[in-house]
Design a protein that fits this description.
The protein folds into two domains: 119 residues, ATPase, nucleotide binding domain (Nucleotidyltransferase, domain 5, 2-Layer Sandwich), CATH 3.30.420.40; 193 residues, Hexokinase, domain 1. The chain has 322 residues and is an alpha/beta fold. The structure holds zinc ion (ZN). Zinc ion binds next to helix 7.
């Protein structure tokens, strides 16, 4: 049996899986508020107690964590505790614990996803043997490359979400000036993430927000997208427009860096909730606007991952391969 985890800044999924030839089968999956626990070990103990599973039955534990991984441990970017493989093994008695980056985990799921779990933004023409890439805006922004090497896919983690934000328009230059004044620098995640949407909202509201969005509310990003999709506030509409274009442009940058002729996959919690905005044309236009390589990008398949548990599934896939 495999214990898999997808440890995010806001939400953590834990699941027990049985290995299978292609895709591990979930037995029990539970969602936790990440900050509801002082340590990750107490969350795992609570999950195993609820599922009535003895840790001795778990062969491999594989955890995807939202942060850079060194020495089988990760300090989460947005959470004050650590995911430490050795410590989890010592406290739970699990046989083998492997910590990987959360987007590396999501990338592991990509080759086993079925058509019904994907929404096509651009059909393109998949190049057999081509690389792939995953970008996922949620609480933060994650990116991973999937290199095709000697007939197999090798997911490679990245901290590209913290690279500098590349402004393309006068409006985006204004965003960079504002973010630099506020944070000392403008990284992509300051724009393309739930928190990024709140940053943009501040800039598109010289007057009061017509939808009365409280930017200090934990659900502010969802409130902005819903106000924008329902067209209840022009400032929220402008904020989502800017977000969608920046997201498409960054997906295009990642596609260039990885030469993702095998496909680009848009994961994370935000994309499935803003499908009407992603399909309006602005996202794919910004994705392809990379002259002289717009033809290359126009041929790449681009899909939204609809499966909200793709990161968890990918951790289970990785665990089943160990
Ligand atoms: Zn508004």
């Amino acid at each position: 049996m495999i214990l898999a985890g997808d440890v995010g800044g806001t939400k953590t999924l834990l699941g027990l899986f049985e290995p299978d030839a292609v895709r591990p089968r979930p037995i029990s999956v539970r969602s936790f508020g990440t900050l509801d626990y002082d340590t990750f070990e107490t969350m795992i103990a609570a999950f195993l107690a609820d599922a009535a599973i003895d840790a001795a039955r778990i062969g491999v534990t594989c955890l995807g964590a939202a942060g850079p991984v060194t020495d089988n441990a990760a300090d989460l970017t947005a959470v004050p505790w650590r995911v430490d493989g050795a410590r989890i093994r010592a406290t739970t008695g699990a046989a083998r614990v492997v910590v990987i980056n959360d987007l590396q985990a999501m990338a592991q799921a990509v080759p086993v996803l079925q058509d019904a779990e994907l929404y096509v933004l651009q059909r393109g023409a998949r190049a057999p043997g081509g690389n792939m890439a995953v970008i996922a805006a949620g609480t933060g922004l994650g990116e991973a490359l999937i290199h095709h090497v000697d007939g197999r896919y090798v997911p490679v983690p990245s901290e590209g979400g913290h690279a500098d934000f590349p402004a393309r328009t006068e409006r985006e230059f204004a965003v960079v000036r504002d973010l630099t004044a506020r944070y000392g620098r403008a990284d992509v995640e300051h724009v393309v993430s739930g928190r990024g949407l709140i940053n943009i909202h501040r800039m598109t509201h010289a007057a009061a927000c017509g939808a009365a969005v409280d930017v200090d509310d934990p659900h502010a990003a969802a409130a902005i997208t819903s106000a924008a999709l329902d067209r209840r506030c022009p400032g929220c509409v402008e904020a989502l427009d800017l977000f969608v274009e920046a997201y498409g442009a960054q997906a295009g940058n990642l596609a260039l860096r990885s030469v993702a002729t095998g496909g680009v996959f848009i994961g994370g919690g935000i994309a499935p909730k803003i499908l009407p905005a992603l399909t309006s044309g602005a996202f794919m236009h910004a994705f392809r606007a990379k002259s002289p390589l717009d033809g290359l990008l126009g041929a790449m398949p681009v899909n939204v991952i609809l499966n909200a548990e793709a990161g968890l599934l990918g951790a289970a896939v990785f665990g089943s391969q160990l």
